[in-house]
Amino acid sequence: MSKRLPSHLRKIGHVFVDESMQDSPMARRVRDKLAGTDRADIPWTVVPPEQDRIEFVRGETQALYLKEYKGKFLRFCPGTRAYHCCGYRIIHIGENCPMACSYCILQAYFQDRVLKIWANQDDLFTELGNAFGADRNTRYRVGTGEFTDSLALEHLTGYSANLIHFLEDYDNVVLELKSKVVDLTWMDATTRTDRVLPAWSLNAPFINEHEEFDVSTLRERLTAARTCAEAGFRVCLHFDPIIHYPGWEEGYAETIDMIFDYVKPEQIAYMSLGSFRCMPQLTPIIENNFPDTTYIYNEFVPGLDGKARLLRPLRVAQFKFMVDRLRKHGMDKQLYFCMESTEVWNEVFGYAPKDFGGLGNRLMAQAFGEE
Ligand code: SF4
Q: Residue 146: its pLDDT value, please?
């Protein structure tokens, strides 16, 4: 009997593949996977070499595009000098996401319904091998969840499993897999539980229910985190974006308390806290795509990176509340801010990254299990 595609992939209604990628292992895998499901009849279209992009507009239906990517796969995270950046490197495996979160920045980057997967994995592995193998004493903390969700398409592509398997040879690399769905099929691809950090974003239950669509529940994410922790992995959890809404204290307190029903503080490699930030062009997109969303009308000021951010006293109040509660559960040094100033660090934590040698250095050490 054919299997049902997971709910977050059920909007996919068409597959495009670059002519040069038709016979790639990735294309074969996606074809085989779909053939074994109730969506085996999804049409495929081959994209000729001279065509650089595809147009796809068909209501809510999404397209999957298996593309030959010609750019750089290993990149720096686009942080800002004005704030403390975590120094993370991105492995670019594709673009766009099948799920829908009202606050998602990807809506401003990709305004179509095309989920792109870079199918030329040989080129990716060649570039990564050259970079990571050049000096085995240089350490890397890398992740794939910057322009897509790390595991959203894993069911069809097996991309993370391939990547993890490839990275087994590189003791100097730790990979973080950041997601809002539960897919643990990649776990079988590695013996290095110390070099893979499964990560889930968390939020208040109200935000999960009203602002995140086609994603897993908080309890499903935490159950998955517990499964990984029991298998020997350390996990990462991220509160980003923290949203100011009526009842936020109860909401974030509930999620924080819930975490420790599933995992112990020592099983968490690190946890980020990031307040909702918004590029000016994102606000009208959110208004249009999610007309019931109200948090975008909060009191915002332009930050040094040009993004709107909640007024500092409101941000700091939320951070203090959450950090205080997390500390009561035994979390401390694993906590960090995503893109905040020295002043905010000092006000909330009582210290700033320069006091411990920089945020990037600390997270690198924690990723490698040294702190
Ligand atoms: S799961 Fe992540 S990448 Fe996908 S829509 Fe939500 S915020 Fe964006």
A: 84
Long-range pairs for 220-226: beta carbons < 8 A, 24 or more residues apart: 220/182, 221/180, 221/182, 222/258, 222/259, 222/261, 222/262, 222/263, 223/182, 223/262, 224/182, 224/184, 224/198, 224/200, 225/198, 225/200, 225/262, 225/263, 226/262, 226/263
**Given this model, what pLDDT does residue 2 score?**
76
Ligand 1 centroid, distance to 106 Cα (angstroms): 7
Minimal-distance CA residue to ligand 1 atom 6: 101
Q: What is the pLDDT of residue 371?
A: 75
pLDDT of residue 52: 77
Ligand 1 centroid to 290 CA: how many Å?
A: 14
If you measure from the C-alpha of residue 262 to the centroid of ligand 1, how many angstroms do you get, rounded to a whole number? 23
Residues of the chain where predicted confidence (pLDDT) is lower than 70: 1, 78-82, 84-86
Q: How far apart are CA 294 and CA 300, in angstroms?
A: 13
The span from the CA of 68 to the CA of 66, in Å, is 7
Residue positions counted in the chain = 371
CATH architecture of 70-112+120-367: Alpha-Beta Horseshoe (3.80)
What Å distances lie between residue 84 and 144, 238, 267, 345, 361, CA to CA? 21, 16, 25, 9, 12
Other Cβ atoms within 10 Å of 106 Cβ, number: 18
Name the residue ranges covered by the structural domains of the chain. 70-112+120-367
Q: Is 100's C-beta closer than 6 angstroms to any atom of ligand 1?
A: yes
Minimum-distance ligand 1 atom for the alpha carbon of 149? 3
Nearest to 163 by CA among 125, 116, 117: 125
With a 6 A CB cut-off, is 215 part of the ligand 1 pocket? Answer: yes
| Ligand 1 centroid to residue 47 C-alpha, Å | 27
Burial of 260 (0-12, 13-18, 19+ CB in 10 A): middle
pLDDT value of position 53? 82
Mutate to test the pocket of ligand 1, among 90, 104, 144 (most ligand atoms within 8 A of CB): 104
